[in-house]
Amino acid sequence: MFREPRRHLRQRQKMPVHFGSPKHHFHTISSPLATQIPQAAGMGYALRRSPDRRSRSIAACFFSEGAASEGDFHTGLLLASTIPSPSLFIARNNGHHNSSDDSFVYRQRSEVEDRKRVDNPIARFRLSMESHRRWDAVAEEELKVHL
């Protein structure tokens, strides 16, 4: 899954954002939609089976919401849930929808906008962190200063 050791990442064989690092245990991304999901589940399983890495490593997988309609999404999550493994799956709404995902086809614009305000995942996450005392105004100010 990694390039040959003697080849440099800047060579033309890579796509623009397909970076990887064996030293940092960072695999390159996959271009086709959703193929990285079962790969991450398999990698998580391999990490679980490796005694020297099982307690300090996870397989993190980032994908767009459009990938959830692909077979690989369901296959990957089923695999990860069947063989419990340290895998983290993060779906991101990148704003690119196919026609079946266009909320405005089925709902009034005002209803969609109201739902975004009421059911904002960032606001929900903040409230959850605050309720578990893992985030507060002081931590937020420290982060702002740091960034």
TrEMBL record:
A biological-process GO annotation: branched-chain amino acid catabolic process
Family under the similarity heading: Belongs to the BCKDHA family.
Organism: Mycena venus
Chain intervals for the UniProt region annotation (Disordered): 1-20
Protein name as catalogued: 2-oxoisovalerate dehydrogenase subunit alpha
Cofactor: thiamine diphosphate
Alphabetized InterPro entries for the sequence: Alpha-ketoacid_DH_E1_comp, DH_E1, THDP-binding
GO molecular function: branched-chain 2-oxo acid dehydrogenase activity
Superkingdom, natural source: Eukaryota
EC identifiers of the protein: 1.2.4.4
